[in-house]
Amino acid sequence: MIKTYKISVSGQVQGVGFRPHVYLLAIEFSLKGTVSNNEKGVIIFVSGEDENIQNFYNKLINFPPPVSKIQDSYIEEIEVRNFEDFRIIPSEKEGQLNLPLTPDFAICKDCENELKDSTNRRVDYAFTTCVNCGPRWSITQTFPFERAQTSIDDFPMCEDCVKEYTNPADRRFHSQTNTCETCGIQLKLVNNLGEKIQVDNSELFEKVANLLSQGKIIAIKNTSGYLLCCNSENSEVVQQLRTKKHRPNKPFAVLYPSLKFLQNEVELNKKQINSLQSSERPINIISLNNYKGNIALKSVAPNLNQLGVLLPYTGILQLLANKLEFPIVATSGNIHGSPIISKIDDSLTKLKDVADYFLQHNLKIEHPQDDSVLKYSTKFQQEVLFRRSRGFAPNYLNIKVNSTEKILAMGAHLKSTIAFYPNENLYVSQYLGNLDDFDVYNRFTETSEGFIQLFEQKPEVILVDKHPLYQSTQYGKELAEKHNAKLIEVQHHKAHFTSIIGEYNLWGERVLGVVFDGTGYGDDKNIWGGDFFKYENNSIERIAQVENFDWLLGDKMSKEPRVSLFALASEEMKPILEEKFSPSEIKNYTYLKSQNKLKTSSVGRLFDAVASLLNITDYNTYEGEAAILLENSISDYNLSNCKLYCKVSSNGFSAKEIIINIYKDVKKEIPKEEIICNFLYTLTTSIINFADKKGFKNVAFSGGVFQNTTLVDMLLELAPKELKLYFHKELSPNDENVSFGQIMHYLHIKE
Fold first, then answer.
1. Which of 250, 512, 673, 710 could cysteine-pair with 696, CB 3.0–4.6 Å?
2. What residues act catalytically?
3. What CATH architecture does domain 403-490 belong to?
4. CATH top-level class for 547-730?
5. Interatomic CA distance for residues 501 and 493, integer angstroms
6. Residue 474: is it exposed, middle or buried by C-beta count within 10 angstroms (0-12/13-18/19+)?
């Protein structure tokens, strides 16, 4: 008996080859009907034998396309309809957008193989994609995801591409990003005056590889923004790039030509290999123990025994990699602190004094994105996201929100992101950067307005950080006035805490929140950063903290670890301070300290003070440098050999006591590595013991301090089996998660 069913599928189902997959399955099960995208996902009508329809549905849900992610699916029988055959029909948009957006996907193995196949018509074509790979969010203008609503639409398909697009047996059947050399995107090589370099397309990447081997810096327009590239084995050119980019010490990422090349130089575990080859293809920070390569490490990753590595993730990078005999620096195309550049005119204006040559193309990038960055801890291989951007943004799939209000969260000031809840889905933007930079602020405001326009929804609630001077807070107030929206302030560290509760859906539990970071404006108007919170029954209470110490000299404190040491130093440490400060500085800072009323509990600044006390660094040239160098100074640890520098009480613990006891070990000439292990052991033991004292069975961690993977490993090793630990996985522990946390706080916390 013939029946007809309507099937709705939502999730990451547009731009992933879902409709052609449905088409082929329908043919396999002898079904007739239609499939189309709509504002909520994919809608399918099928007619045929009931058993065939059920088998079709089960196979579709259990074996979807490789880069799709199904959140929900519904099947319901409807009145019988007559269809001549099964067809993919044009999308119909009947309401506002209400589906997850599709992130960019790394080049798949099939497309990668075509690039080097001399018999294939796409040999050497840099923008080769299919339904399983290629740019998505970076070229999206609006949704549903159709070619006409992306910047690829500027390149009408040629006859051969149309044949592929309409052939159910082809991998490019209904591939919205389908182009080729005949009809597609064009590359050109220019010098830093904008003058074109005459070179045949077939020799273009060989020319670029030769220029890199000659010590040139090249700005490559990738599909998500520019990358600045140079030979990573040439210390002189790497130093030139540092000088020109105004980036004295922050490590550069290195692009390896292949996994095999990378494995010949470094040791990788299974999780790292899978991540480096995944559809997200993030930068992985890996250990340089037993490193066997020729990278100029002192220039590429100064003072570090770790390196950020990645593999080619677009046709452009793959074609270049095919011609390379060495790994290259591949860092964001910008001046340090500014947003990644995506426009040709901007690149020639802002990078003309940085790059010698530019590899340009004429595809418009709608949403520029930096590469995502993550690291796996050494002992437990716990994944820690350092930056959530290309490949991950702008979706957040791991949640169900039930609210009728349209909510926009403006996030923090450093490592800013925006979160928007305009429908049944929640969206967290790509990493945007530090809002002190004017261009980052402009990108931030454009992204906010872009979300509002894309979803055709005005925010009814706007959430901001309590810090009155955050640019995100001030802009949020402007937007609230513009849209007549309710404005709500959410304390920074409470947003951190609710972000991790929300990530694991712990709303029905009693949870200890440990939020350690550099700075956050507290409810008491002091600078928080070492906080213990209790969550229970939709309520949050700050139940303990790192004992307050002086916050001195404003932003100077976060930029100069020696100032944190000054704030925490006891009288007996005067000889060390005299080595780090001039007599006039000591006099002035001592006076300021005596008059100071602003206090902090910041664990980030405690890390800075320890780094300064151990003479690791007195100045941060990039955010978190002292903490990174501190962790970098230890190669391994043994908990049985560690000792405590203080004990935790029901009120928290003392940073000053820790510094005093570390100073005693410094005077005893205890090795730095041993002292650092003891310091981290003190923090982890304090947390575990505090949880035990207060009777918690769940502990959730957030804040930039928990990017320290040794600290994470120690916590996992020390925790008794009955204690459950929760670390960020979907989001970064740093301030990128604050926008998401603000929405979670608004929806769940009663204050």
1. 512
2. 19, 37
3. 2-Layer Sandwich (3.30)
4. alpha beta
5. 12
6. middle
